[in-house]
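debug: dumping io for the single-chain case to check the tokenizer round-trip. Nothing else runs in this session.
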Amino acid sequence: MEQVKRDIVVRTVPAGGYVCMKGETVGHWLGVVNGLVKMASNRSTGKATSFVGLSDGSWFGEGSLLKDEARRYDVIALRDSRIAYMKRSRFQNLLDNSIPFNRFLLIQINERLGQFIGMIEHERLLDTDARLARCLASMFNPLLYPGSSLELRISQEEIGLLAGISRQRVNQALQTLEQGGLLRADYGTLTILDLDGLRNFGA
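debug: decoded output
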């Protein structure tokens, strides 16, 4: 554990700052100590999309390390965030020598795969209100985001990017979910009141 600690650097990334950038050489495994970041892709045409939000306790980037390729996405802080950067050499050492670490990675990759399959399913089969509900619920997966609380500081614009819907439509969907007693929407903050209800909304 002391060796692992020596090979981790914690940095503060300000809101709007890049945790890592698409195309760069991957030298670290990354974790959110506290804060909120988004995994996103911005094309030269000006089009942008956000894949997933990452909150307290989440680790990411193992795929690029395992495949030994340049990073395929940007990760941008949505608010001031403390990020842990574990050296690639330490990640590889744990991979080669630690059964518990390998078990953790298998669970992590399996949960992330399930999350992305769910996103495709929701996009194709659910209406807008249900898609937004499921998108919000996915940000509270206890295995992927073990440190997250039920209060989420995020703008409606960012929610729209994560859910793939317009900001105006986000506002309408949040009103529907709030009227259903599933959440409370305040300026810049969402408080989840019924997580199971969000997970099953539109079923």
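debug: round-trip ok. The radius of gyration is 17 Å.
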